[in-house]
Amino acid sequence: MIECKNISKKYGENVIIKNSSFDIQNNKISFLMGPNGHGKTTLIKCMMGMEQFQGDFLFSGEKINSVRKEILVLWDDCPFYTNLTGFKNLMIFSENKKPKKEIKEIASKFLGSDLLKNKVKHYSYGQKKKLALALVEILEPKYLIMDEISNGLDYEMIRYIQKLIKHWAKHTTVLLTGHQFSFYNEIIDDVFIFKSKDISLLVEDFQHSDLKLEDIYDESIV
After folding, report:
1. Which UniProt keywords apply (predicted)?
2. Which of 30, 31, 37, 175 could cysteine-pair with 188, CB 3.0–4.6 Å?
């Protein structure tokens, strides 16, 4: 579980998050909903210790520095070493957690062997996303945070990723953010909303409700 205790964040006099407390449950797919520019990415940066803030984030009772290697964040822009090949990037970021042969087998589920030999600077936006998804399979993180993961993927890959995320959640605590609600409607468990500088749990066990994210956004955010 990720415990978020009395989290506050501001830039100068501009308050981004105000004294918010909530828990992200283990082995669930949680979704954070909020308008663009209201602080979702800032929250993730605070969670990862990349920004100063007030309050505490605890990962199964531990501070970030004790569990950093168990966490993987996939940002929307999927940063990689652009002058290296896709496969070389996976070898570097895999941190020797799996042998070379197994990394190749996993990567081939997402990208062809010829493409993996190309430098990442020649990859499309969607191909970089697929490379990042291969990294999840390789690292098998305990905590997985994904920002706008469905952007740039074709329909076939989107359906495949939905199945993968549900599979990953069996052994991973997953936090998602995004705006392509049709993608998230089918897979999420808990819905958190970011409104009026506060973050709170709005819907628990979403799959057993009759709600849609589009309706929640219209009623609770707009």
Report:
1. ATP-binding, Nucleotide-binding, Transport
2. 31
Total number of residues shown for the chain: 222
Angle at 207 between CA 202 and CA 211, to 5 degrees: 60
CA 152 – CA 198 distance, rounded (Å): 30
Decide: residue 89, CB within 10 A, 0-12 exposed, 13-18 middle, 19+ buried: buried
Q: Give the span between the Cα atoms of 86 and 176, in whole angstroms.
A: 24
Neighbours of 141 (CB within 10 A): 21
Q: Are 151 and 121 in contact (CB under 8 A)?
A: no
pLDDT tens digits for range 155-177: 888 999 999 999 999 999 999 99
The letter for the amino acid at 21 is: S
Convert the pLDDT of each residue in 66-110 to its tens digit. 999 999 999 887 789 999 999 999 999 988 889 999 999 999 999
d(Cα 143, Cα 124) in Å, to the nearest integer?
A: 27
Tell me the three state secondary structure of residue 111: coil
State how far the Cα of 42 lies from the Cα of 62, in Å rounded to an integer. 21
